[in-house]
Design a protein that fits this description.
Elements: H1 3-14, H2 24-27, H3 31-47, H4 52-66, H5 69-81, H6 86-93, H7 103-118, H8 123-133, H9 135-157
Helix pairs in contact: 1-3, 3-9, 4-5, 4-7, 4-9, 7-8, 8-9
């Protein structure tokens, strides 16, 4: 490794993730950028103003929209561990609006899917998100989605597989994600 790559690797290995998996090996090809990105990801994963369950919900929406197998494989587990209902996870995997979301999940789901579909959100959707979680959470979910877009693109282009012995968890979508 170059000194710059070693710096990035040390930052990832010494942080809360503790291992170079997912996009991090690919990002070593541009280590200064990779190090900056992994720091954004560290904030999003570990200190976002949104509860972990809701943050992971937004991440799953992104992973599904990209059919990012590795991202889904990793974050479906995190979402379940954070208390997201398995049926909600299954419905998102199938590209469907979950039928049995909690009220706070529905607010995040509506915000994230509307932003993805329309490239903006309505005043009503914004007001629902702001009223429930505040303005910081709006920025945190927007940045989480953008960051995981970058992660998913990296994983797909670098063809990062799920671990050996694991099946790809997502089927190709029948249509673009709603």
């Amino acid at each position: 490794m170059t000194p710059e790559q070693a710096c990035m690797a040390d930052a990832v290995l010494g942080g809360p993730r503790g291992r170079l998996i997912g996009p991090f090996n690919a990002w070593l090809r541009s280590p200064e950028l990779g190090n900056r990105l992994q720091k954004v990801g560290e904030y999003i994963r570990f200190t976002s103003s949104l509860p972990t369950r809701l943050n992971e919900l937004a991440i799953l929406i992104v992973a599904r929209s990209w059919t990012s197998q590795f991202e889904w494989w990793a974050h479906a587990k995190f979402a379940l561990d954070a208390g997201l209902d398995p049926q909600v996870v299954a419905d998102i995997a199938a590209g469907q609006r979950p039928a049995a979301m909690r009220d706070d999940e529905a607010v995040v789901y509506d915000f994230a899917t509307e932003l993805r579909r329309e490239k903006r959100v309505s005043d009503a959707t914004y007001a629902a998100m702001r009223g429930r979680f505040g303005e910081q959470a709006i920025i945190d979910v927007i940045v989480a989605m953008g960051y995981y877009d970058i992660v998913s693109m990296t994983l797909n282009v670098a063809e990062v597989p799920v671990p050996t012995g694991e099946e790809e968890p997502l089927k190709p979508p029948d249509a673009p994600y709603p």
